[in-house]
Design brief:
By secondary structure, the chain is of the alpha/beta class. The chain has helices at about 15-25, 45-55, 70-75, 75-95, 135-155, 180-195, 215-230, 245-255, 280-285, 295-310; strands at about 5-10, 30-35, 60, 100-105, 160-165, 165-170, 200-205, 210, 210-215, 235, 245, 260-265. The strands form four sheets. Strands 2-1-3-4-5-10 form a six-stranded parallel beta sheet, sandwiched between helices. The protein has a two-stranded parallel sheet with strand order 6-9. Strands 7-12 form a two-stranded parallel sheet. The protein is globular and about 60 Å long. It starts with 5 loop residues before the first strand and ends with a helix. The structure holds guanosine-5'-diphosphate-beta-L-fucopyranose.
């Protein structure tokens, strides 16, 4: 990418898209194209066709997606499948029709089978059954990744994909019904501290293991891949470190300064027992993460405190 290349960041107001935009601005890319959801509905083919024909971006970061935590994924599978499929079909097909030089498609580590050998290597994709709580989202993301490969094969495009582990950071969703675990626990512990409640409810058994990557690291990896990776196979993006949900809760409790008890609600699902990415391919390419989890949670808590009133979180 040249500093004056026209770069479209799809999903620039979300957790990942906003971090990619910050990263590109910091690196002084000067021709960045964005559209709000009101200006451009990415599920609408007519609107997306018109946008690409008018703007003709040279590079596309496809970070727009309908995302959510375990509860939202299992309650609204039709939405997760339909919206994500529509967004990626419209954007990827238009990237081809309008001669985009390179596109980066973003997926998720939930594309791997529920009982995948750990850590999960790129080649384990489609080697077993998916985790039921996020099957619809995973299937949409797998078809996006495959769509990029098929277009490369049939049309000679340069569309690459990356699969990040669980992400967190500034601009995350703190709504307790639809958020992921990390922002949910920041909010739950903070509210319990303010209300001097004696306990906080943690969904599931606390035993599942998760790997967390700070979103600014994720954005940096995306820009790195856009500049230096060409290949059919997707690339995992993670830290190689995991911890249990119980240990995560204890860490967030300490950071927030809450002194009550943890109560585990076994009526809520655990989801994948373990979800650790093998990110050795990315480290061989020359990229590694930098943000330590504790520091990253402190930054995210600071952001939450600064934004919750403004955004009514
Ligand atoms: O982050 P999370 O919603 O998503 O949940 P997944 C991770 C674990 O934390 C699960 C537990 O075992 C939850 O039961 N957990 C404990 C909580 N307390 C809470 C809470 O208050 N809120 C939430 N949300 N979880 C999602 C997938 O899976 O991860 C998506 O559904 C996507 O498809 C995303 O891949 C990255 O890691 O289980």
């Amino acid at each position: 990418m040249e500093k004056n290349s026209k770069i479209y960041v799809a999903g620039h107001s979300g957790l990942v898209g906003s971090a990619i935009l910050r990263n590109l601005e910091k690196k002084r890319f000067e021709s960045l194209v964005i559209r709000t959801r009101q200006e451009l509905d990415l599920t609408n083919q007519v609107q997306v066709d018109a946008f690409f024909a008018e703007e003709k971006p040279e590079y596309v970061f496809l970070a727009a997606a309908h995302v959510g935590g375990i509860q939202a994924n299992s309650t609204y599978p039709a939405d997760f499948f339909f919206i994500n499929s529509m967004i990626q079909n419209n954007v990827i097909n238009n990237a081809y029709k309008n001669d985009v030089k390179k596109l980066l498609f973003l997926g998720s580590s939930c594309i791997y089978p529920k009982l995948c050998p750990q850590p999960m290597k790129e080649e384990y994709l489609l080697s077993g059954y998916l985790e039921p709580t996020n099957e619809a989202y995973a299937l949409a993301k797998i078809s996006g990744l495959k769509m990029c490969q098929y277009y490369n094969k049939q049309h000679g495009t340069n569309f690459i994909s990356c699969m990040p582990t669980n992400l967190y950071g500034p601009n995350d969703n703190f709504d307790l019904d639809s958020s992921h675990v990390l922002p949910a626990l920041i909010r739950k512990f903070h509210e319990a501290k303010m209300a001097t409640e004696t306990s906080v409810e943690i969904w599931g058994s606390g035993a599942p293991l998760r790997e967390f990557l700070y979103v600014d690291d994720m954005a940096d990896a995306c820009v790195f891949l856009m500049e230096s990776y060409m290949g059919q196979e997707h690339v995992n993006i993670g830290t190689g470190k995991e911890l249990s949900i119980k240990d995560l809760a204890i860490l967030i409790k300490k950071i927030v300064g809450y002194h009550g008890e943890l109560v585990f609600d076994s009526t809520k699902p655990d989801g994948m027992p373990r979800k650790l990415l093998d990110s050795s391919k990315l480290s061989k390419l020359g990229w590694t993460f930098s943000q330590d989890l504790e520091e990253g949670i402190k930054e995210t808590y600071k952001w939450y405190m600064g934004n919750k009133v403004k955004r009514q979180l």
